[in-house]
Specification:
Blueprint: H1 4-53, E1 56-61, E2 87-92, E3 98-107, E4 114-122, E5 129-132, H2 142-145, E6 148-156, E7 162-165, E8 171-173, H3 179-183, E9 185-187, E10 190-192, E11 195-196
Parallel strand pairs: 4-11
Antiparallel strand pairs: 1-2, 2-5, 3-4, 3-6, 6-7, 7-8, 9-10
């Protein structure tokens, strides 16, 4: 039969193990709560960044039959053939500028986008701005606009995160450590390497 001393020692050991178990459980609970809060903070930061990125957009507009140009008069001169070419509109509806803005156009004769325009900075815009128009384009650039069927934009937000809005309008965060994402243009589930404007050959056009 165990002595009272043995019982006391056993009870002390049980108490020690119980206290240790409680401490371990408490530590695990605290670690879980810290991780949950950290993940929540990261998600809130990601959403905050996405809020600015979601305010940046680019699209192709048709001046007649699809809405008049917001800053032009429909004169007889404006009704020439050029008036039916698409214009490219750009907007930054956030309160902060975005940087390293690249505009890429998609054309009906190529599966690769064309690097169309680069901007160091795009400040907040109260209304959509006309980023590119036929009548403002250089002679060697203007013929491409007849074939434009879509447009994409790449930019860096005020927090340093890189984004792209694809030609279907979806927003995608870019992993700059991935060379295909860093140098390509997002399209569907993948990335396509763009072509430079000076390298574009328009089918049927004489050199």
């Amino acid at each position: 039969m165990p002595s009272s001393a043995d019982l006391a020692a056993w009870a002390g050991a049980v108490g020690t193990w119980a206290a240790l178990g409680a401490a371990v459980h408490g530590a695990r609970t605290a670690f879980h709560m810290i991780r949950v809060e950290r993940d929540r903070d990261r998600e809130q930061e990601r959403r905050r960044q996405a809020d600015q990125a979601s305010s940046v957009a680019v699209w192709v507009g048709r001046p007649f039959g699809g809405g008049n140009r917001p800053d032009r008069l429909a004169t007889s001169v404006a009704l020439r053939r050029e008036s039916f070419f698409p214009d490219i509109y750009l907007v930054n509806g956030s309160r902060l500028p975005v940087y390293e803005v690249g505009i890429f156009v998609w054309v009906d004769f190529s599966a690769r986008p064309i690097r169309w325009q680069n901007r160091v900075i795009l400040p907040p815009t109260q209304e959509p701005m006309l980023a590119s128009a036929f009548v403002e384009a250089a002679p060697d650039v203007a013929p491409v606009m007849e074939h434009v069927v879509g447009v994409s934009v790449a930019f860096r937000d005020a927090e340093g995160t890189h984004w792209q809005r694809t030609r279907d309008g979806s927003l995608r965060e870019i992993d700059t450590d991935d060379v295909h994402q860093r140098t390509g243009v997002a399209d569907g589930d993948g990335f396509v390497q763009p072509q430079e404007l000076e390298d574009v050959h328009i089918p049927g056009r004489q050199a």
